[in-house]
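Still learning. Show one?

>
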Amino acid sequence: MKIKKIAKANELMWVLGVIFVALGVSICSKADLGVSMIAAPAFIINDAVSSLWDGFSVGMMEYLVQGVMLIILCIVVQRANWRYLLAFLVAIIYGYVLDLWLFIFKDVYFEEIYMQWIMLIVGDVITALGVACFFKTYLPLQVYELCVAEVSDRYKFDIHKTKWAFDMLCLVLSIILAFAISQDAGEFDWSTIYKSSYHHLGLGTIITTLINAPIIAGWSKLLDKCFTYEALLPKVQKYIGRNNKEEVVIESAEVEDDKN
């Protein structure tokens, strides 16, 4: 039986992308086995700042981190573009949605190890669904994808290698931040790394990195069977649709997903 596709779902994909990525990241953080290398810096820095400023949230730190990243991007590529501001606006929206999910789950804890791992996988699956939704929309993405697109374009780097280098840079930065800001590595029992994280870095971070791409690929194929992606607001697409460089990042990610 052929499924009738939901038409003109382009903008809906962006909304679902924001909701599901934020939901997935919040669930992974509650599993306490380690969040992804991309999400980790905001969580790590927030741990230190929140002890000094109780009202400061992970979501606020998320868009501040992306704001700093955007400034560094402008310096590295030696140019600026009004589209950069759209990416930062998306980061702000995402930050507030992330805070909302973290507030909803504030009293949720998983004491059993098997439940921690189940919820990590659940969080990874939901996050991957959000990323797959983002792949289908013309609307701006966050600063992370913008950095890969702009650096690759400015210096004519291979897009796949640039994405890999960016991910590894985020991982190294997260490790440095965790040790430099916290300075309590000697107090952590590394034999328990399979059931707890060290400032949001742990075995779960590695697992998330390994399983993320194939899950995104699976969701992407399923979405293609259920939706078509024409713009509901074509005039908006004309003026603020992603440029070709950002499309290359999305296309390259989809190619990598298919390979996995």
